[in-house]
Amino acid sequence: MRIALDAFGSDKAPFPEVEGAVLAIKENLCEKVLLVGDESILQAELAKYYYDKKRIEIIHASQVIEMTDIPAEAARKKKDSSMVKAIRLHKDGLADGIVSAGNSGAMMAASLIVLGRIKGVLRPAIAITFPTKSGSEIILDVGANADCDPAQLVQFAELGSMYSQFINKIENPRVSLLNIGEEDKKGNELTKEVHKLLVVHSNINFIGNIEGKDVLKGITDVIVCDGFTGNVMLKTVEGAALAIFEILKEQFAKDWVAKIGALLSLPVFNYLKKKLDHTEYGGALLIGLKGIPIVSHGRSNGKAIKNAIKLASKLANTDFIEQSSFYFERKKDEVQS
After folding, report:
1. In what order do the strands lie in the sheet with 222-224?
2. CA torsion sign, 110 to 111 to 113 to 114?
3. d(CA 114, CA 284)
C-alpha cells in the first residue's frame, strides 16, 4: 500500500509528519509513504532519521493550506498545496489513501472536488473511531455537516454500519441515534423523524437512542448524529478527559501521601490515558467519498500520524469503497423499480 501524506498540515509540521512516516515504514504499516510538501525542508528533516530510503518518496509542493484559510477557496486556488497535491496522487491511482492533519474544512472541500462523492451519497461525513469501556465504536458525523435532514442521517447510519463491518469486523453492527433520551418520542423534530426511519430500516440493526452519558459505555457499535452535535460531544469528552488528568496531577503533587498513592495507581492511570488517547486511533475517515481520505487532529504527534497511515492502509486493503458504491447503486435501482 502507498499512502500519500500531506507533510505540511499539522500545527508543528513537518516534524510530526516526517516522524510518523518513518515510524510507519519501520513498523511495516504500508509499503511506501509519499511525503508531499517543500522538498528542501523535507530532505533536511528526513536526514535526521535512519530508514529505508526506497520506501519514503518526497513529492514537491510549493504551497501550504493554512488553518486560517477559507476552506473551499483554499481548496480551489491552492492547487499546488501539499494537501491538494496529496489528494490528487490518490485520485490518479499513485497512492492508495491520503492522510492530512491540516485544515479539516479544506480537506473536506478538496476531497469533494478531487475525489467526488460516491454516487447516491447525499453528503460525506467525518467518521471517527472512538474508545469505549469495552472496545471502540464509530461516531458520525463529528463536524462535516452542521445541519442535516433525516435522509442524510439515515445515510450516515448506513455508511457507519458498513464501515464498522469492514474496520472493526462486526458482522451486524448495533446502530444508535444520539439523543437527549432513550424514548422514541424524545428529542427534536429531526431526531424523532430519524428514529422512525431507522426503526423500519431493513439493513440497519437499530437499537434505539443513546444519551451522551452512555457514549463511553460500549453498548453500541455506531452512533449517528449531525455534525454540530457530534463535534460538540467529541470536544466535550476530550476536554473532560484532559481536565480530569490535570486535576489528578494537581492532587498527587500536594503531599507525600498523595504521591505514594499516585505511584501505586500509576498502572491504572497509564491504562486509562492510553484508552482515551486520540493518537492511538490517528485519524477519521471522510466517509462517503470515492477514496480513502483520513483527517487527523492538528495537534497530532508522530504516533498519531503513524496510526493515521495505519488506518488508511488498513482500509485500502479492503473493498469498503467498492462495496459502499455497490450498496448505494443497488439502492437507487430498487427505488427506481
Report:
1. 56-60, 32-37, 2-6, 97-100, 293-296, 283-287, 125-132, 135-140, 222-224, 174-178, 205-210
2. positive
3. 18
State pLDDT tens for residues 133-167: 777 899 999 988 889 999 999 999 999 999 999 98
| Residue (of 80, 74, 138) closest to 108 by Cα position | 74
Per the listing, cell 423499480 goes with 337
Q: Global pTM? A: 0.89
pLDDT single digits (tens) 237-264: 777 777 776 776 776 676 766 666 666 5
* 3 state SS for 209-269: EECHHHHHHCCCCEEECCHHHHHHHHHHHHHHHHHHHHHHHHHHCCCHHHHHHHHHHHHHH
Q: What residues are paired with 293 via a beta bridge?
A: 98
Cα(25)–Cα(6) distance, rounded to whole angstroms?
A: 16
Cα(219)–Cα(221) distance, rounded to whole angstroms?
Answer: 7
Decide if 155 contacts 166 (C-beta within 8 A): no
Q: Give the residue among 36, 28, 43 at the shortest CA–CA distance from 101.
A: 36
Q: Does residue 137 sit in helix, strand or coil?
A: strand
Q: Would you state the cell numbers that stand for residue 11, as one nine-digit string?
A: 500545527
* Residue type present at position 276: L
